[in-house]
Amino acid sequence: MVAVIDYNAGNIRSVLYALERIGVEHELTSDPAKIRAADKVIFPGVGHAASTMKHLNETGLADLIRSLTQPVFGVCVGMQLLCSHSEEGDVECLGIFPERVHQFRPTNGDKVPHMGWNEVKLAPTNDWVSKEVDGDFCYYVHSYYVEPGPDTVATTTYCGREFAAMLRKDNFYAAQFHPEKSAKVGERIIRDFLAV
Amino acid sequence: MLAKRIIPCLDIKDGRTVKGVNFVNLRDAGDPVELGAKYSLAGADELVFLDITATHERRKTLADLARDIARHLNIPFTIGGGIKALEDVHVLLDAGADKVAVNSAAVRRPELIDELAYAFGNQFVVLAVDAKLVDGDWYVHLNGGRIKTEQKLYDWVGEAQERGAGEILFTSMDHDGTKAGFANDALARMSEQLSIPIIASGGAGNKEHFAEVFTKGKADAGLAASIFHFGEVEISDLKDYLAGEGVPVRPISR
């Protein structure tokens, strides 16, 4: 069973539909017992980092997520919240990954938010994403990015800088783009996570 | 490098896709979900669904359509038509829509943009603008181009960005249905003026028009309907052509 953490984030329906298309049993839940008991956990996210962290701290979900031992997949803002700090509202995040989250500054014609399909390059450190993903394009919508660090397994370039497209540390996995909206390659990545 | 997006637009009436030539004569071009899935497989980067009847007769089935699309498609989509209030958008996002397009209601009550951006985030809010060149100035038009306003295009898109729109979907009523190319001058001017992405709409007739809209028009995405619906331009051919012209495009997913 895959638990998708329900915490009032925007458009998480798409994640559920992606799991439905793949045909894996899943449940949208905020029940700590169910989340702890799940084989895999998906931590989606669309929203403001600071207000979301406040909600996670108040509901106890922050401590719960930190304590999980099964594979956990953070998506988009979910990935940013697993990092150590975000510039969006200057907030301490869950601290699973030491990487920090910064705001894109528009440079010569590059617009913010970074919205659309961009190339994903796998790093030599990658140990969970299928090799054929390298060089393919995934769908992004974000104004904040994670600077590459020791846990970075894939990168993308925008606004004249390379940022972390995917992360992995111990049982925590993450993607900045929306795999649920990234056509076949996105489905491949979700399957890769479900297979770890 | 961020790819330029190719977006088929599906105009919806009574649950079926239609395309109006200059928004008047409507022709039936199929089932929206089936057509959307076909485009997704063919390499479309995104889809836009516009309920063109919604401004006149309020459609409650739009959410059902959004749910159906979200369930079957794995690429992002925008849905619009007759959106007037926060509650309309709540239902659509809950159904799985990635973005909503607002048009006439935002012109009539610009605060709607602020409210939507605050509630759902800028990236959810696409401001659709229909405009016509009148005596040398672009004027915003309402209700599918039927009603001229005194609002000037560049002022309006600037205000919309300030209020929190995340993207502009610009349709030139003068170019729409002509198949003679996009309104590249107006598009380039908006692209320089704004820091949010611009979807160009109206006038696509061939592959060259897309190359022009991305180079001369500086658009972030090109939208078209009938040339895709009737197979006049195949998305795979279009992407091959654009790649050959040095335009960054997403290769069709393996």
UniProtKB/TrEMBL annotation, chain A:
A GO term for molecular function: glutaminase activity
SUPFAM superfamilies membership: Class I glutamine amidotransferase-like
GO biological process, one term: L-histidine biosynthetic process
Keywords, alphabetical: Amino-acid biosynthesis, Cytoplasm, Glutamine amidotransferase, Glycosyltransferase, Histidine biosynthesis, Hydrolase, Lyase, Transferase
Pfam families named among the record's database cross-references: GATase (PF00117)
Domain of life: Bacteria
EC number(s) recorded for this UniProt protein: 4.3.2.10, 3.5.1.2
Reactions the enzyme catalyzes: L-glutamine + H2O = L-glutamate + NH4(+); 5-[(5-phospho-1-deoxy-D-ribulos-1-ylimino)methylamino]-1-(5-phospho-beta-D-ribosyl)imidazole-4-carboxamide + L-glutamine = D-erythro-1-(imidazol-4-yl)glycerol 3-phosphate + 5-amino-1-(5-phospho-beta-D-ribosyl)imidazole-4-carboxamide + L-glutamate + H(+)
Localization per Swiss-Prot or TrEMBL: Cytoplasm
Pathway: Amino-acid biosynthesis; L-histidine biosynthesis; L-histidine from 5-phospho-alpha-D-ribose 1-diphosphate: step 5/9
Record Gene3D superfamilies: 3.40.50.880
Database matches in InterPro entries: Class_I_gatase-like, GATASE, Imidazole-glycPsynth_HisH
Cellular component annotations (GO), alphabetically ordered: cytoplasm
Signal peptide range in chain numbering: none
UniProt main location, coarse: cytoplasm
NCBIfam families found in the cross-reference section: IMP_synth_hisH
Record's subunit section: Heterodimer of HisH and HisF.
Reported function: IGPS catalyzes the conversion of PRFAR and glutamine to IGP, AICAR and glutamate. The HisH subunit catalyzes the hydrolysis of glutamine to glutamate and ammonia as part of the synthesis of IGP and AICAR. The resulting ammonia molecule is channeled to the active site of HisF.
Protein name: Imidazole glycerol phosphate synthase subunit HisH
Phylogenetic lineage: Bacteria, Pseudomonadati, Bacteroidota, Saprospiria, Saprospirales
Automatic annotation (TrEMBL), chain B:
Reaction catalysis annotation: 5-[(5-phospho-1-deoxy-D-ribulos-1-ylimino)methylamino]-1-(5-phospho-beta-D-ribosyl)imidazole-4-carboxamide + L-glutamine = D-erythro-1-(imidazol-4-yl)glycerol 3-phosphate + 5-amino-1-(5-phospho-beta-D-ribosyl)imidazole-4-carboxamide + L-glutamate + H(+)
Compartments, as annotated in UniProt: Cytoplasm
GO cellular component terms attached to this protein's record: cytoplasm
Main localization of the protein described in the UniProt heading: cytoplasm
EC main group: lyase
Gene Ontology MF, one: imidazoleglycerol-phosphate synthase activity
Active site: 11, 130
Record pathway: Amino-acid biosynthesis; L-histidine biosynthesis; L-histidine from 5-phospho-alpha-D-ribose 1-diphosphate: step 5/9
EC number(s) recorded for this UniProt protein: 4.3.2.10
Coiled coil: none
GO biological process: L-histidine biosynthetic process
UniProt entry keywords in alphabetical sequence: Amino-acid biosynthesis, Cytoplasm, Histidine biosynthesis, Lyase
Family indicated by similarity: Belongs to the HisA/HisF family.
Subunit structure of this chain's protein: Heterodimer of HisH and HisF.
HAMAP family hit by this protein: HisF
Free-text function comment from the UniProt entry: IGPS catalyzes the conversion of PRFAR and glutamine to IGP, AICAR and glutamate. The HisF subunit catalyzes the cyclization activity that produces IGP and AICAR from PRFAR using the ammonia provided by the HisH subunit.
PANTHER family reported for this sequence: IMIDAZOLE GLYCEROL PHOSPHATE SYNTHASE HISHF, IMIDAZOLE GLYCEROL PHOSPHATE SYNTHASE SUBUNIT HISF/H IGP SYNTHASE SUBUNIT HISF/H
Name this polypeptide is given: Imidazole glycerol phosphate synthase subunit HisF
Organism of origin: Neolewinella aquimaris
Chain's gene name: hisF
